[in-house]
Amino acid sequence: MDDVVLDAVEKRFGGVSVVNGINLAIRKGEFFSLLGPSGCGKTTTLRMIAGLEGPSSGTVSIRGERMNGVPINKRPTNLVFQKLALFPHLSVWDNVAFGLKLKKVPEAELRARVGEMLDLVRLSGFEKRSVTSLSGGQQQRVAIARAIVNKPAVLLLDEPLGALDLKLQTHLQEELRRIQRELGMTFVYVTHNQTEAMAMSDRVGVMNAGNLEQIGTPADLYLRPRTEFVAGFVGQTNLISGRIVAIDEQHMTIDALGLSFVARRRDDVTVGQAITFSLRPEQVRISAAGTAGAQMPLLDATFFGATATYRLQAPGGVLTAQAHGELQTMTAGAVVSASWLPEAIVILKAGT
Ligand SMILES: Nc1ncnc2c1ncn2[C@@H]1O[C@H](COP(=O)(O)OP(=O)(O)O)[C@@H](O)[C@H]1O
Ligand SMILES: [Mg+2]
Predict the structure, then answer these.
(1) What ligand is nearest to the CA atom of residue 207?
(2) Is domain 2-224 in CATH 3.10.580.10, yes or no?
């Protein structure tokens, strides 16, 4: 069952389209992320789901009900932003209880629900503390508790961890994932951080300049990117342009970088056609010169600890390889042999 459905949703500001008619179906209980660079339209899309903006055309539905024209407070959604919106003069307890008090929820039920939420975000014992005395991470936990205490169908989160330091971000990513699973609530999470989206999400929608380029599981997007943009934005890759020179039963040969790349055959291409493909650096295997593969000089090597990155000088450009760091260090100028499997060559569509 789909919880949030966007049907040809477009948003224009002063005649300029910033969301270009996107289609999206987010499933019930799913952790879904909208991922893309700054300015691509993620926040605008989230604001249209929340009801803070109306679409210029198209429809937003939640739980099968059309939401166009339905005000924010009548939607089964709640929001968490990067910029905290806690009441500084209230305690942790009163911040979380605020919405329930407004709704005149009976005292016993209110106590139970606020207690349960503080437990869930691991802030039991902090009830009487003023929110201003808490760390940034603890404050964000209060904001999350406050947003879920009303049991919205869908929680919308806009870069909620953006202001925290890296270590705390990683910790809260795991916590958010745990909270989402325990509640079974649909989360729509906006981020420009691909590692974050990959770590937390069931599925990710990659946005670029107002378009939704690809929707898939983190593994789908990494292993089977369909566009140049997705291949380059989700992880590091070699984006290589070349021409198809031969096609046989199972394979095709692409001339690129002055090298010959054998890929899995596709039925939608012909000999002579120009083509762009992705080859992940960790799929390029390097071994001693003279072993099977393309012989190329090493331009430089960068050691990262667990891994090392090697830049290889192909006749017509540079090819990047990544290997586990335990390989003996190879020195710049040395000739090495590079090889890859046909499966590692992922044919891409040109970006939109
Ligand atoms: N209220 C607005 N008026 C005019 N332009 C806006 C407004 N809100 C957003 N934009 C523009 O829409 C584009 C997408 O913005 P946004 O959705 O905030 O992107 P993201 O969240 O991906 O960084 C940007 O170019 C931004 O400047
Ligand atoms: Mg934004």
Answers:
(1) 1
(2) no
Residues less than 5 Å from ion ligand 2, measured at CB? 43
Distance of alpha carbon 34 from alpha carbon 208, whole angstroms? 10
Ligand of minimum distance to the alpha carbon of 45: 1
For residues 163-178, average pLDDT: 90
Residue 234, pLDDT > 90, answer yes
Task: Tell me whether domains 2-224 and 238-348 share a fold.
Answer: no
Question: Which pLDDT value is given to residue 351?
Answer: 45
Question: At which residue do the structure tokens 């910029």 appear?
Answer: 83
Asked whether residue 84 carries a pLDDT value surpassing 80, the answer given is: no
Please answer whether residues 301 and 286 qualify as being in contact, where contact means their C-beta atoms are separated by less than 8 angstroms. Answer: no
**H-helix or E-strand spanning residue 246:** strand 238-247
Q: How far apart are CA 84 and CA 62, in angstroms?
A: 26
Helix axes 136-148 and 107-120, enclosed angle (nearest 10): 140
DSSP string over 275-296: EEEEE-GGG-EEEETTSSSEEE
Other CB atoms within a 10 A radius of the CB of residue 81 amount to 19
- DSSP-derived secondary structure letter, 131: G
pLDDT digits (tens, 9 = 90+) for 277-306: 999 999 999 988 889 999 999 999 888 888
- pTM for this structure? 0.92
Mutate to test the pocket of ligand 1, among 19, 44, 159 (most ligand atoms within 8 A of CB): 44
How many angstroms separate the alpha carbon of residue 48 from the centre of ligand 2? 13
Is the domain 238-348 a CATH 3.30.420.270 member? no
Task: Name the nearest CA neighbour of 340 among 288, 278, 297, 284.
Answer: 284
Q: Atom 4 (ligand 1): residue with closest C-alpha?
A: 13
234: three-class secondary structure by DSSP: coil
Domain ranges of the chain: 2-224, 238-348
Distance 13 CA to ligand 1 centre (A): 8
Q: Which atom of ligand 1 lies nearest, measured to the CA of 44?
A: 17
